[in-house]
Amino acid sequence: MITDDSEPGRSRHEPSAWLAELRDILGRKALTPHFQPIVDLRIGELYGFEGLIRGPSDSVLHAPLNLLDAACQAGLLPELERACLESILGAWAQAPQHYRIFVNLSPGALLDARGRAIRGAHLVEQLGLLPGNVVIELTESHPTFEYGPLLEAAEFLRSMGFTIALDDLGEGFSSLRLWSELHPEFIKVDKHFVQGVGSDPVKLQFLQSIHELASRTGARVIAEGIETDGDLAVVQELGIDFGQGFLLGRPAPQPNLRQSPSLVHRLKPSIGGPASRHRTTTTSRATAERLLLPTPPVSPSTNNLEVLSRFIRQPDLLSLPVVQDDVPLGLLNRYTFTDIMSRPYSQELYGKRSCIQFMERDSLIVDQSITIQALSERMVESDPRHILHGFILTRNGRYIGMGSGHDLMREITQMQLSAARYANPLTQLPGNVPIQEQINARLDAQEPFAVCYWDLDHFKPYNDVYGYRRGDELIQWTGRLLQEGFTESDDFIGHVGGDDFITVLPGDDWEQKVRGLLLRFEAERQAFFNAEDVEQGGYSSENRKGQMEFHPLVSLSVGVVGVLPGVYANLHEVAAAASGAKKMAKRQSGCSCFLERRMPLARSAQA
Ligand code: C2E
Ligand code: CA
Ligand code: CA
After folding, report:
1. What's 6's DSSP letter?
2. What is the distance in A from the centroid of ligand 3 to the CA of 124?
3. Residue 139: which of 65, 208, 205, 87 has the closest Cα?
4. How far, in Å, CA of 321 to CA of 394, rounded?
5. Nearest residue by C-alpha to atom 43 in ligand 1
6. Is the CB of 37 inside a 6 Å radius of any atom of ligand 1?
7. CB within 10 Å: which end of the chain, N or C, has fewer?
8. What are residue 491's phi and psi, to 5 degrees?
9. 162-171, 255-264, 411-420, 492-501 — which is least confidently predicted?
10. Is 140 in the pocket of ligand 1 (CB under 6 A)?
11. Half-sphere exposure (Cβ direction) of 303: Cα atoms closer than 13 Å
12. Minimum CA distance residue for ligand 1 atom 17
């Protein structure tokens, strides 16, 4: 484990010595803030910073825990915490403010509630900060706790626009009860459960359960203490949204806005990388389900004041769905709604009325099984406001959650980036990785499909005689021909490399199209040869031994494997069958096709 040089263990000095020291520090305001980045792991970008306090570097009270201990024992905790806030927020006010700032507050500080909260809020205001950008991290510090006043204080802070995080979940007394009563927007999982999570099944289980619980309650998880690539990979793999730890950035006197390039590379979701398996794909089979944001809905019996308080509590909530008996009715949009409710007398006039009064009834409602591609087409064709307001996701007509236009755009961009990354440079068609993904997705879907392995015959001598440029053109033309031949939205055309192509076609009515394509190739290929060569059906060239050899015109062969559910166990079996079929096709002269259709039990082959 990496140790933090700022935390050399708690002070064991004589009380009188540190008491004088503490008073001196408070008197001189000798506190310095540090800022540690919190990263949005879904997009690999900075989300905010946690402010962490430090005493003078040569003092036994350098480490924050020592400072806090000392202040607690001296009865000076409120003064210290006030000074910490001033120091951290004061420095933060100089920094770019579109990031979030997370500050620590002890429940004691919070419990002294109103007065202190108001002073804190004034501080925020004086510094020109927006409460909506300030997240208050709360740790439960005692086993027996007065919940009532604490919740009241938290509610009060929320009403002023602050966001609440439950800190150190799993450590000390930070408990599920506080979680269930406080409804924090963020849950910070203690570093104990993150460090080495890759090799500890119990930690893994813990993190996974927290993540699931959080997504059901609309809270977002921040994994603390990410120290190694291994920790990061597991956290991302679990789909946890935010991370903090030495690997992502150590606490530093200035907020460090620049991530190291190697880190950026590791963080950006990428296909084939550890983070990508759940999130990105180049195939068009990905569905809207991956955009699901579980969002507790309201019902027609919810009144407008309750909706308003929900929007205040959850500053990131763009729209609130209205649902009755699992059936979605429409959306309440944050901006439209708060705009109406902030007009004079609105709260008195409408506050107690049903929220359906201001509900948009023509919201975009889609089933979770719709593909991302199809969803984005619907989005583009429909009212532009859906991109801002988001859409409702259903399963068999029942409400399951929300999706945001922003997430959809990110997913589409990711798919395009991945597609570009794995495209064949010559034809721009998807290369090996997406081809494999496509076949895997088809196998998973358990429906019939065909894999066609296309290959040009006698291509090498063509390249030698006509030159590489003409050779490239012939390959590009073949790619275009395939694209023109297989135009269904579910048809997939990939370019393995060289003169090899793969098409993956759904269903079982592809045979005619495949044969039609060979005929078209044969009919149109003469454009690539001299008239004389077309006449002779080929041309001669010198082989390696210096002898003249006759080569027929380039032809196209295809081996087709008709895949029925349950016949092939995996991608490798399908790929082996496809290259076997291609070899059989190539044994025949001219443009030719070999079909391989294995039956679930009795296996058969036909030419
Ligand atoms: P915390 O709120 O849990 O803050 C995170 C602590 O974990 C910080 O220690 C940070 O430096 C450390 N840390 C971050 N990433 C890693 C990592 O990858 N590995 C390891 N081993 N540690 C990591 P720090 O700065 O020593 O703060 C200790 C505690 O003191 C904080 O724990 C917080 O409870 C308290 N604290 C710090 N500043 C303040 C403050 O301004 N006000 C209050 N009330 N408490 C503060
Ligand atoms: Ca904290
Ligand atoms: Ca913490």
Report:
1. T
2. 22
3. 65
4. 12
5. 104
6. no
7. N
8. -75, 140
9. 255-264
10. no
11. 9
12. 225
| Residue 157 binned pLDDT confidence (cut-offs 50, 70, 90) | confident
Listed in sequence order, the residues at least 6 apart from 592 whose beta carbon sits closer than 8 Å to its beta carbon are: 518, 555, 557, 558, 585, 586
419-435 core/surface letters (b: 16 or more CB in 10 A; e: else): beebbbeebebbbebbb
Model confidence pLDDT, tens digit, residues 320-373: 999 999 999 999 999 999 999 999 999 999 999 999 999 999 999 999 888 888
Question: To which residue do tokens 């120290």 refer?
Answer: 227
SS3 string, 354-385, reads: EHHHHCECCCCEEECCCEHHHHHHHHHHCCCH
Indicate whether 261 pLDDT > 60.
Answer: no
User: Nearest bound ligand to CA 84?
Assistant: 1
Taking CA atoms only, the protein residue closest to ligand 1 atom 25 is: 52
Find, among 482, 480, 372, the residue nearest to 416 by Cα.
372
Rounded Cα gap, residues 479 and 482, in angstroms: 5
Burial class of residue 227, CB neighbours in 10 A (0-12, 13-18, 19+)? middle
What tens digit of pLDDT does each residue of 1-53 get?
444 444 444 444 566 778 899 999 999 999 999 999 999 887 777 889 999 99
User: Between the CA atoms of 406, 412, 414 and 417, what dihedral angle is there, to the nearest 10 degrees?
Assistant: -130
Q: Which residues pair with 558 in a beta bridge?
A: 454, 593
Helices then strands, counting H and E runs in the chain, come out as: 23, 20
Q: Which two tokens stand for residue 10?
A: 């708690």
Answer yes or no: are the C-beta atoms of 560 and 452 closer than 8 Å. Answer: yes
Contact 556, 427 (CB under 8 A): no
Q: List the structure tokens of 382.
A: 């429909």
**Ion ligand 2: protein residues whose beta carbon lies under 5 Å:** 104, 137, 167
Locus of tokens 């950026």: 264
User: Tokens 């079929």 label which residue?
Assistant: 581
593 pairs with which residues across the strands?
558
User: Quick one: tokens of 377?
Assistant: 């087409």
Q: Does residue 4 have its Cβ closer than 6 Å to ligand 1?
A: yes
* Residue matched to tokens 């275009």: 480
User: Ligand 3 centre from 312 Cα, in Å?
Assistant: 25
Q: In the numeric block, which tokens belong to residue 596?
A: 């391989």
Distance CA 337, CA 351 (A): 12
Asked whether 42 lines ligand 1 (CB < 6 A), one says no
**Euclidean distance between CA atoms 552 and 540, whole angstroms:** 9
CA of 188 to the centre of ligand 3 (A): 6
269 C-alpha vs ligand 3 centroid, how far in Å?
26
Ligand with minimal distance to 6 CA: 1
Question: How many C-alpha atoms does 56 have within 13 Å on its Cβ side?
Answer: 14
Report which secondary-structure segment, H or E, holds 575. Answer: helix 571-587
Assess whether the C-beta atom of 227 lies below 6 angstroms from ligand 1: yes
User: Hey, which residues does 321 pair with through a beta bridge?
Assistant: 331
SS (H, E, C) 552-574: ECCEEEEEEEEECCCCCCCHHHH
Token output for 554: 């380039």
Q: Per DSSP, which regions of 245-340 are E strands?
A: 319-324, 327-333
Q: What residues form DSSP beta bridges with 51?
A: 35
